[in-house]
Amino acid sequence: MNSRNLIQINSYYYYQLLYSTESYRKELLHNSLIKERLDYFNRSKNMENNLVTTQGPLDMIQGIRGDLFGLQTLDLTARKAEPTEMFALDEAQIYIDGCDFPGTIDYLLLVWTLQERFGKELQDMHVLEAMCGPGRLGRDLLTEAGVARVTFHDGNSQMLTHAVSKATSILTSGQQVDSIQSDVTRITSSGDVFDLVLCHNSLHQLENIGRLRQAIAEMLRVTKPGGYVVIADYQRSNSLAFKNALSQRLAETRPEIVQLLLDTFLAAWSKEEFESVISSLEAADEFQIEEARLPSITPAMFMRMIEDPVLGHVMDRSPISQLIIIRKQ
Ligand SMILES: C[S@@+](CC[C@H](N)C(=O)[O-])C[C@H]1O[C@@H](n2cnc3c(N)ncnc32)[C@H](O)[C@@H]1O
């Protein structure tokens, strides 16, 4: 039996035990877990500056222990690319239906991180959301951070139509959106245009490291000198910290998505792979690669986090993901 079978059996038993019926899961989420999270919040609140400690919300959901998915014996040294880069049209619709739902704070967590990093300057930026999919990140930038202009980019026309029409419906005066459809390794834009290029949970879809290099070089080409490329994506690592965090994340994931998510992690780029690619690019003036983490969370932010039906989103700001910030020369 290979490790993949083991993973399926482990996750099957786990969900048989914990999430055997939908109504039980709902009850679990809406009563005990939320109460537990609120109690924890009240205990861990930093009364002086009214911020929750960054580690607090992560500790809260790290209650499940053990190697439930057989990850400890899984060798994650070699990458296993996903079968195709771009979604077919019907797959795109499935992704839109599955990922663009009102209650998610997945993208908002990154918007808060960007606000923490760039402060008020973020508002005046012209942002390119590369490989935007349903464009949820760009939309949250418009509504939550008041960003002036967002250009959505994707190779898939269905994703772009959805992203632009949703964003157009929430624009306030002075804000604009537009779109670019192209392969990410050949973005159809002149150079030096955007203050900030963002790419969220997408680069793991690229076939090989040569294409990863071309994609990042292209993002840097369209960025203004002194501007930034920010990549937030999953990572692949053999470290114990990573495997423990991934175990927790999978335990928070709907059972039917566990295998899909695991395949994503097999295709994710390691920190070292990102480092070798970025350090070979002349346009990258300086860069940092760090474990993803939560920004400082206020009580109001916290209340929004616990409303997210996918509790595991909070775990995406843990060692399972990485945040890469590149400044263009
Ligand atoms: C996993 S989805 C993520 C979408 C979005 N960033 C998010 O976080 O929800 C990856 C997106 O990348 C797009 N994509 C994949 N390969 C691409 C390529 N070579 N060029 C342009 N877009 C691509 C897909 O169409 C899809 O919308």
Write a structural description:
By secondary structure, the chain is an alpha/beta fold. The protein has a single domain, classed as 3-Layer(aba) Sandwich (Rossmann fold), CATH 3.40.50.150. Helices cover 45% and strands 17% of the residues. The chain contains twelve helices and nine strands. It has a seven-stranded mixed beta sheet with strand order 5-4-3-6-7-9-8, with helices on both faces. It has a two-stranded antiparallel ribbon with strand order 1-2. Strand 6, helix 8 and strand 7 form a beta-alpha-beta unit. The longest helix has 23 residues. The structure holds S-adenosylmethionine.
Largest sheet data: 7 strands, mixed
Physical arrangement of strands within the biggest beta sheet: 5-4-3-6-7-9-8
- Write down the overall mean pLDDT: 84
What count of domains describes the coordinates? 1
Distance from N terminus to C terminus (CA atoms, Å) equals 51 Å
Bound molecules: S-adenosylmethionine
CATH topology type: Rossmann fold
Order of helical and strand elements: HHEEHHHEHEHEEHEHHHEHE
The DSSP helix count reads 12
The total strand number stands at 9
Give the overall silhouette. globular
Indicate the CATH architecture: 3-Layer(aba) Sandwich
Low-confidence stretches: 1-31
